[in-house]
Design goal:
Layout lengths: L9 H21 L6 H14 L3 E5 L2 H11 L7 E5 L5 H8 L3 E5 L10 H7 L4 E5 L10 H11 L2 E5 L7 E3 L5 E3 L6 E5 L13 E5 L2 H10 L4 E3 L2 E2 L10 H10 L3 H19 L5 E2 L22 E5 L4 H10 L29 H9 E4 L7 H17 L8
Parallel strand pairs: 2-3, 2-4, 4-5, 5-8
Antiparallel strand pairs: 1-9, 6-7, 8-9, 10-11, 12-13, 13-14
Bound molecules: pyridoxal-5'-phosphate.
Pyridoxal-5'-phosphate binds next to helix 3 and helix 4.
Length: about 400
Amino acid sequence: MRKIQMVDLTGQYQEIRDEIRKAFDGILESAAFINGPEVRAFQEELESYLGIKHVIPCANGTDALQIAMMGLGLKPGDEVITADFTFAATVEVIALLGLTPVLVDVDPDTFNIDTEAVRKAITPKTKAIVPVHLFGQCSDMETLLDIARENDLFLIEDNAQAIGANYRFRDGRTQKAGTLGHVGATSFFPSKNLGAYGDGGAIFTDDDALAHHIRGIVNHGMYQRYYHDVVGVNSRLDSLQAAVLRAKLPHLDGYCEKRRNAARHYNRAFEGHDGITVPTTVRQCEGICDTCDCHVFHQYTLRIADGKRDALASRLTEAGIPHGIYYPVPLHRQKAYADVRYKESDFAVTNQLSEEVISLPMHTELDGEQLDYICRTVLEFMEQAEPMGGME
Ligand SMILES: *Cc1c(COP(=O)(O)O)cnc(C)c1O
């Protein structure tokens, strides 16, 4: 059996190797490293893939979130509601801009922001909601769009983990993740579903004026060379990364399908097993499409009951199976983001998830033998760890 990796990008590289080497040669010969034709071409190809008017490439996903908030004109003191259960980048940029992060609990099935908790957290100072499409599946955007409309709030999608996912409205209409709110932000970190060979990110919007504003912000606030109309940042995608992303974009749907296949393999093994909760896919498309493309499984995350998660993690390590705990500490309990206004009882779900979640290897190169070995190892552990005198 091949050694199991948490993320394995070797197979993807073999598939696009010649294309990438040729593009790299061209860039090296032309020395168009920044804002060259590759970046422009990638931007247009991603716009057409997503069905959105504007993609603004930038240096990474964290910048993309920050720039989106700057573009919307959020000001110190404005409150921004986001999920307690996410990677810290989401709340980091809110705090960095002097905005007030307001963390709320998540849904126990989807791990995504709890829309009722969002409603309760709204105050006269609230200006925006940042749903994070965690692990590859959209938040309940239909409800969030209603809440944003009713309360005149911006909706900023953190789409770092769900690029390629579809969102299906109750009337059957579909739209790509990241294109549903006022603005979307994504990351091309190598391990993301559409990953570069270094850092990269992008901002999406259908709003012409906002797009124009943001194109200036990413480039030192310049709309005309050496005239600085607004305070900006330096955040750009380089040509080498754009070439990698151009080569990979046509394969993105295929990559997502491979991830879903691995997820189905895991689900078949674990579904209905005591003490294991498999990830929930919201079947918005029930009865509409045969194969659900609403989840792109950036991570495949189980919940392990009865305090056995850490022992399972040790067992997997012994068995040579990499795994991840995303995320071990809810943001409201991080030193940097703790706030006297937070009550532990408001975070019952994230507190529990942080003790129960474990993510298994998930990438496009997992084969049946590896998946079987991982499933067998998990199931054997769960059976041994069960009290004596079970049904078996
Ligand atoms: C990866 C990630 C980011 C940050 O992206 P970088 O490109 O690493 O800056 C932001 N939010 C979430 C949810 C992520 O998973």
